[in-house]
């Protein structure tokens, strides 16, 4: 009897897994339709003279320009330094956000002490930090990474704090009934309940990290995709500007997709629409 049940369950599990894979693949292809359509329309508009080539060069012109930079090795250097700034700032900002977000979310006194000031700092525009960091840290890599870290910090902090404070009090009461220690409550109740908000905060922080690295590289950088945009503007080369913007979009999408896959695997226990077969 048990062997029949196992043979029945295994094919069903395989079918569900195959459906999930097929659904993911079809969703990925659907996401390419609009970008491909825009590129084709853009190419046609450029070739037919609807737009001036010196203002909006065709996609093939942009690709040729970036390919020439890649062959000379310059493009790889710009991409590498930008990726380094984003990831270093992301790690630093996320670590600071986890430490402060966990403390302010879990301890009411710390929240009352720190949160009002942090919420006020969150309203400061990114470019307003640039002259201050240059004065304090200098014009080197440290100021650029710090600026990215500031952009990453606030969404991660806000989502983690909200995730902890939004935990159902009944779950905490259940932990007390079972005589959980503070460490057990954090491990078995708080972390799983706050994890969805935390991962969303990481994704939001990473997207802001890409925005802040542009601000960092627009001012005082001699290398990076942001610097390449400024160079293209100063030399009247719109293909460099557009190519840099496209690369920002591509790498931003790739890094977000990595976090999204981690989110899907980590939260596959959730009974929601995304995990529905």
DSSP helix count? Answer: 10
- Helix/strand order: HHHHHHHHHH
Distance between the termini: 28 Å
Number of strands: 0
Portion of residues in beta strands equals under 5%
Low-confidence stretches: 1-9
* SSE-based structural type: mainly alpha
CATH A-level architecture of the largest domain? Orthogonal Bundle
The number of distinct structural domains comes to 2
CATH C-level category of the largest domain: Mainly Alpha
Binned, the helix content reads over 70%
Could you give me the name of the CATH homologous superfamily of the largest domain? MetI-like
What is CATH's topology name of the largest domain? Answer: MetI-like fold
Protein name: ABC transmembrane type-1 domain-containing protein
Domain ABC transmembrane type-1: 75-259
Membrane topology: Multi-pass membrane protein
Family: Belongs to the binding-protein-dependent transport system permease family.
Description:
By secondary structure, the protein is an all-alpha fold. It has 2 domains: 1-51; 55-266, MetI-like fold, CATH 1.10.3720.10. It has 10 helices and no strands. It has helices at 2-48, 59-72, 74-106, 108-122, 126-137, 141-165, 169-177, 182-218, 225-234, 238-266. It starts with a helix and ends in an 11-residue tail after the last helix. The chain crosses the membrane at residues 27-45, 83-107, 119-139, 145-168, 189-216, 236-255. Belongs to the binding-protein-dependent transport system permease family. It holds the Pfam family BPD_transp_1.
């Amino acid at each position: 009897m048990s062997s029949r049940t196992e043979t029945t369950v295994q094919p069903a599990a395989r079918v569900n897994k195959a459906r999930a894979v097929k659904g993911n693949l079809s969703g990925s292809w659907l996401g390419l339709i609009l970008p491909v359509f825009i590129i084709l329309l853009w190419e046609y508009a450029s070739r037919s003279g609807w737009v001036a080539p010196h203002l909006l060069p065709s996609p093939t012109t942009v690709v040729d320009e970036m390919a020439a930079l890649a062959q000379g090795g310059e493009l790889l250097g710009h991409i590498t330094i930008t990726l380094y700034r984003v990831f270093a700032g992301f790690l630093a900002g996320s670590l600071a956000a986890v430490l402060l977000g966990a403390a302010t979310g879990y301890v009411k006194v710390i929240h009352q002490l720190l949160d009002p000031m942090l919420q006020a700092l969150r309203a400061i525009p990114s470019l307003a930090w640039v002259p201050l960091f240059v004065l304090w840290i200098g014009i080197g890599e440290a100021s650029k990474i710090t600026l990215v870290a500031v952009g990453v910090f606030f969404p991660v902090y806000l989502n983690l704090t909200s995730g902890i404070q939004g935990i159902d009090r009944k779950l905490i009461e259940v932990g007390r009934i079972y005589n959980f220690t503070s460490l057990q409550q954090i491990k078995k109740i708080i972390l799983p309940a706050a994890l969805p908000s935390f991962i969303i905060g990481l994704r939001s922080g990473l997207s802001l990290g890409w925005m802040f690295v542009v601000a960092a590289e627009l001012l005082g950088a001699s290398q990076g995709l942001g610097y390449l945009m400024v160079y293209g503007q100063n030399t009247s080369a719109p293909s460099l500007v557009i190519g840099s913007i496209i690369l920002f979009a591509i790498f931003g999408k790739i890094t977000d997709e990595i976090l999204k896959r981690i989110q899907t695997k980590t939260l596959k226990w959730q009974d929601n629409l995304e995990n529905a077969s």
